[in-house]
Amino acid sequence: MAARHSSWRCTVLMAGLSFFMAAAWVTAGERAFPKDLIPEADFVKLYVETVKQMQEYARSQSSLNQDYKKLENEAYHLIVLCAVQRKIGDEASIRKAIAAQNAGKVIAAAAVKKDHATVKQLLTDIADWNKIQAEEAIQPQVKSLIDDVPMDNFMKGLVQPLFDRFDKTPRAYRNLNAANFNAKLPEIQLACYKMAIYSWATYFYVPEADDIPKGKSDKDWEKWTADMMKASEDLLAATKAKKQSDLRSAVRRLDSSCTKCHDDFRMKD
Prior knowledge:
Blueprint: H1 40-57, H2 61-88, H3 91-113, H4 116-126, H5 151-167, H6 178-202, H7 218-241, H8 244-265
């Protein structure tokens, strides 16, 4: 019997959704990720950013004691990020992504235990993407992301902070002049990549049949998460084309899809 989670409220976009534990077991192979959406070089930027943030949280035993929860969630982000790379990377990249995912699982557990020695060693092992000791065999994807990343951590620890940040990035740049907007594009693009990754990952957290509101089904969940994914793709297209007006329009579409999903799947205790 799946554990139930209390509903929670967030102020922005998809993070305002209320969920229960997913048990519809959507496999990672059933949801494609656009093959060319995140170039290898940009994936590496996201990876390096993630590992550096983890290193910051674990720079000492005292910092780990203070930020262990943040480190745990960043390790979960690493797992989700590498799940995407396993969908779009070549064989060598997939083997490295598996190794990084496996390290992320151990780091998440070690963070909770405040085991600084284990965290430090693993972060050293995976610090350089190009030098990761790749797995010898390509392992099958987990049954569902929820097997590796608990829903509560995914929604509260990953999605909510991203949407809080997102609310202060692309939306905040709509009134910038062209020169300043272009200067901020790398920052915006990394946020949009994360938006796409989390939009894709949300698909796997479909509620149990008994917890879906009357008149709705898992097909509605699939539709809205697909809409969020498409809006995220549009966001990235706008950043790559350096079109501020297109970015603004894509943000509105993302707002709309997230709000509609929120309206359909808001649940109360």
